[in-house]
Amino acid sequence: MITCGVDVGAGSTKAVLLEDGKRLLATTWLPTKGQTSVAAKTAIETLTRDANLLPDEIASICSTGFGRYSVEERNLQVSDITSSARGAVFLHPAARHVLDIGTQSSRAIAINERGRVLKFKMNEKCAAGAGRFVERCSKYLQVPPEDMGARACLATNPRTISSVCAVLAETEIINYIAEEVPVQDILMGIFMSLAERGHALMKNVGIQPDVVLVGGLVQSAGMVEALRRTTGLEVHVDPRMHHAAAIGAAMLAHMRLEKTRGGTPSMPASGRGMA
Amino acid sequence: MTRVPITIDNVGPEERVVVPARRISDDFSEFTQARSLDDVFALAREVIEDPTMPTVDAWTRSGRHAVASFPVYTPQELVHSLGMLPVTVQGGGEGYEITHADAPLGSFLCSISKSTLEMALTHQLDRFSGFVFPYICDVSRNLEGIFARTWGGRPTYMLHLPQNFDTSAAVPFLLAEYRRLIEQLEGMAGRKFDAADLAASIKLFNRQRELVAQLATLKRTQPWRITAVEHYLLQRLGTLIPREVHVVVLENAIRELAKRERKQRDAVPVLIVGPFCEQPTIDLLQLVEDVGCYVIGDELQMQTRWHGPIKPTNDPLRDLAEAYLKAGLDIGVCRTPTTKEDAIIDRVTSHKAGGVIFLTAKFCEPAGEDLVLYRRALEKKTIPSIQIEFEEKSSGYEQSRLMLETFVESILFE
To answer: What's the total number of domains in chain A?
Structure first.
């Protein structure tokens, strides 16, 4: 039985196919570009084509992410906190604490051995602790986002970004640029700032190893290094963690199908919320 | 430059009280003769959300008196026994703009303290003959003082309720306090208190409390028959209309709800804890059930639910005082004969709830203090819980939705 998970994020849309809730068949990624339903549809079509499947061979589609309600093809939807937690355990079975730094928000999630969410905390109404902040810094520093992490690791004297507000933090960064502070020192300061906010969230829910990082910054060496320095913990990363939420969604689609004994799960009557 | 104090007399004439858009008839027959339950809910929502208070307008048009009280509990039977309409004023609601009340009140105070004062300063409360403030927290206590200075000399009363429920001095203290309140109410009503009238009022309020309890039982045992919002609307309506009318509304509603056919959903039964004073927005309440919960117990609209029906003796005033002290619901804001930790576990167990949603008003200290104790107890027993903070001016519930969905999914996908 093949299920599909689609994670429609603010920055990018990720999708995966899973066989019997256990085996990863295919993954894809594309920028959302503000068109959530189009991105989701494209991702599902790409996966189906890559895996040589007919559309009706996908038993169930579960959407997640901030655009989860705009996925017309979905059979059910779950929050990205729930799906990230499940996906993290799928990829790293010893995971008990998930730090998810997404484009729009960050969350620390305490989970059990099955990936069930025990407690979570989100950053509230502020971009300072989220990936969007990094994207904006990339523009100020004229360093492509994909290069920021590696360059940050070259820092010899990381600069402190003390403001808790993204807008004010950007002002601090501009001041550092004016002072001709080396770019790598500013970059590491940015990641340290992000890591400190993430660490505050983590402490709020209680830290249990293993800690894993999910979301768009898993491939940033600078972010991982900043987290290790800030938390003093081993932070487990896996490039596939970028797809953790989509994998979790596909797993939950499988679980739901099993619960309904092989039947096709229907949408909730309201179209929003769990049936 | 001379500093002009903010009072009701300094507010411009353009802000004088407006006539409500909806004219409610003098006998409130719209509520008792509605064509359907849905019509009752729609009308209830309309009058609840209208800060011009059309039901108070309907009552006072013919010269009758109405007395406002602030949450959580005032012995409104006393107001009723003197022929006046008791009304619980619970803030201006989501769309109410604060332009004057920010001056005497700090930004770190709850929404309803500000919007209630704003209503007074902009003449929305001019139809009331007085205002009673029970001592629920420091903010409510100070609000009485601010009203006394700013509300154009209308009578206000700070009701001192005992903090220690078990001492032998509690009943005599409360009786003395009620007698002081009666003196004030007599001045507002222009007539003398009569114990026989109070006994009759208690009898009527007993019937109302009985029906409210029946409704709560229905919501606990068959939550698919009535939504959390509908339950809330029916209860809150009772704080705005004559109790005689509310009794008929409740009798009709309970009869109709028993016949109502609705599909039972695969939803998580939850308790809502925390909003015993400031009420969450209707949209937030709806969201709780939209994401997959059934609210089977809550702390909303505590005025009518503080205690159950009163067993009458030949001393109705003492009956009223003893009901407050000895027959309060076993929840934090009333009295907890056990510890708060034990009380929350008992409530979860007795309701067979799958989890607890703490809806706490921003800057509400009493709710915040209880929250720490409650969550610690729930965590020890691994009972799922979540806290959502709200205020009157909440807008956009995406973050709350995400949190509530995750909470529900963590239970459903176990």
So the answer is: 2
